[in-house]
């Protein structure tokens, strides 16, 4: 059987600097191939090179060959029209950050209809039915509402499922999935990935799966490629690489799931008090209730973990606490004072989608330094502290002169954490702040956050889909039920 995808001696450069060298990679029809490694190792670059979506000044050398039916494609040597035919129809891609990948000025339904219109001839009513069926297949229970909603009007997990529906709507021969379940709760993530895998198998399509969730990769993939710092460390069957005699780096990834134990402060005072908070949004049926009469407290130096399915209202709650949204009713007190009548609550936040929350026009060091200057530090002092914050989240000084678009998804998330810590907050909200990080870096960042909490008596609200983090990294947990 001839391979669907063949990669030989793939090298990716930024001008003269080599970012990735992948000697070989093959995918057979119907195969699920896992691609794992730490943030910045070159996983997303591999997928982007296959799709010919590398941004300047990046370029690649080597051979990439796709065999679709009786035709051979060589991305990089193909015309614009041939690549347009390939993308979307024969090769679908689930991008890592759906809010950045979706068009904010188009409804979710219109974007998928556009893809259908380019590659398939159907009537409008037939196309809508195909989209509704695709939404239901990836676990979107309100397909009509999602169809008419803009990306910012749905949750991060719902946006991710819209991306999966878009990637598979034309029954592609090859699907490239870059962290397709990062923003989903565990139950939904399993359902969505099972749907994605089953779709690929039913079509005899191949799936190249990038993920930090090693148990999920082990369950669904048959072959595995391990990358570290742009080099291929190991390649082979999942059974062999996840065995006791595995590569030391793979072993380190597998044993990095240990979560720092939460230490309690003695006699902490209450920092945040939320009482009977309710929120709804207008909808075609009148209004949609997000949550109702939500109450909780957070004390100094404590971590409150908030869990719930995608779309249950976790991110909406964060927006209310940071004064980006108004509640319908209820009260929020910070140190005994109401924040609902102020424009700035004083509560800082690390957002779920790092790329959309960063300024793309300034360098990474300046992103952090401007926060410190706003607090009153002189320029040199601010830059020095910004360097220290970058290093504290695992980014060395070389990242200071780069821009956000030059970082991987996990590196951008670490940059957002460093920026939030620069304001020296008393209460910090982290919305899926470690979901995009590989196990080793996630453990490092969690240890850093716990150390800061302990020394500076900072309180955290930790939004997470990970039950282990919710149980081990917090001293109280709140589950928001989907209404």
Give the domain tally: 2
Cα distance spanning the termini? 50 Å
List how many beta strands DSSP finds. 19
Helix run count: 17
Question: Remind me, CATH topology of the largest domain?
Answer: Rossmann fold
Oligomeric form of this entry?
single chain
For the largest beta-sheet, the strand count, sense and barrel status come to: 6 strands, mixed
Mean of residue pLDDT values: 87
Write the layout of secondary structure elements.
Elements: E1 5-14, E2 17-27, E3 32-37, H1 43-51, E4 58-68, E5 71-73, H2 80-86, E6 91-94, H3 98-101, H4 108-119, H5 124-137, H6 143-148, H7 156-168, E7 174-178, H8 186-202, E8 206-210, H9 214-220, E9 223-228, E10 231-237, H10 238-241, H11 248-254, E11 270-283, E12 286-299, E13 303-307, H12 314-321, E14 329-334, E15 337-338, E16 348-350, H13 364-374, H14 379-392, H15 409-422, E17 427-431, H16 439-456, E18 459-463, H17 467-472, E19 476-479
Parallel strand pairs: 3-8, 3-9, 6-7, 7-8, 13-18, 13-19, 16-17, 17-18
Antiparallel strand pairs: 1-2, 1-4, 4-5, 9-10, 11-12, 11-14, 14-15
């Amino acid at each position: 059987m001839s391979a669907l995808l063949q990669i030989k001696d793939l090298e990716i450069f930024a001008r003269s600097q080599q970012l990735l060298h992948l000697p070989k990679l093959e995918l057979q029809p119907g195969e699920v191939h896992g691609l794992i490694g730490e943030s910045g190792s070159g996983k997303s670059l591999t997928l982007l090179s296959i799709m010919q979506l590398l941004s300047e000044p990046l370029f690649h050398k080597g051979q990439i060959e796709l065999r679709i039916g009786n035709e051979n494609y060589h991305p990089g040597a193909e015309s614009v029209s041939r690549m347009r035919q390939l993308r979307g129809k024969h090769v679908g891609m689930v991008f890592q950050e759906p809010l950045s990948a979706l068009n904010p000025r188009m409804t979710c339904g219109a974007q998928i209809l556009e893809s259908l219109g380019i590659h398939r001839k159907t009537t409008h009513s037939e196309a809508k039915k195909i989209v509704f069926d695709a939404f239901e297949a990836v676990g979107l229970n309100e397909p009509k509402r999602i169809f008419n909603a803009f990306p910012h009007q749905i949750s991060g997990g719902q946006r991710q499922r819209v991306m999966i529906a878009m990637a598979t709507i034309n029954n592609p021969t090859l699907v490239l999935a870059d962290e397709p379940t990062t923003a989903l709760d565990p139950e939904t993530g399993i359902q969505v990935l099972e749907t994605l895998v089953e779709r690929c198998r039913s079509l005899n399509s191949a799936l190249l799966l990038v993920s930090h969730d090693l148990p999920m990769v082990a369950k669904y993939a048959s072959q595995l490629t391990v990358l570290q710092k742009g080099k291929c460390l190991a390649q082979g069957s999942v059974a062999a690489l996840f065995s006791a005699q595995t590569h030391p780096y793979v072993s380190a990834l597998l044993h990095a799931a240990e979560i720092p134990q939460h230490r309690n402060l003695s006699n902490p005072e209450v920092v945040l008090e939320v009482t009977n908070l309710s929120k709804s949004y207008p909808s075609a049926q009148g209004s949609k209730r997000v949550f109702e009469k939500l109450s909780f407290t957070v004390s100094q130096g404590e971590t409150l973990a908030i869990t719930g399915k995608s779309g249950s209202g976790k991110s909406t709650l964060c927006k209310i606490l940071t004064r980006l949204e108004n509640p319908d009713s209820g009260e929020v007190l910070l140190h005994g004072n109401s924040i609902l009548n102020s424009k700035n609550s004083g509560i800082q936040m690390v957002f779920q989608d790092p790329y959309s929350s960063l300024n793309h026009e300034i360098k990474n060091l300046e992103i952090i330094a401007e926060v410190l200057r706003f607090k009153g530090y002189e320029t040199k002092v601010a830059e020095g502290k910004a360097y220290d914050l970058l290093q504290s989240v695992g980014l060395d000084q070389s990242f200071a002169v780069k821009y956000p678009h030059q970082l991987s998804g996990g590196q951008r998330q670490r940059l957002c954490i460093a920026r939030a810590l620069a304001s020296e907050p008393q209460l910090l909200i982290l919305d899926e702040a470690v979901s995009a990080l590989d196990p080793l870096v996630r453990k490092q960042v969690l240890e850093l956050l716990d150390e800061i909490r302990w020394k500076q008596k900072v309180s955290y609200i930790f939004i997470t889909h990970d039950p282990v983090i919710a149980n081990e990294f917090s001293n109280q947990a709140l589950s928001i039920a989907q209404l």
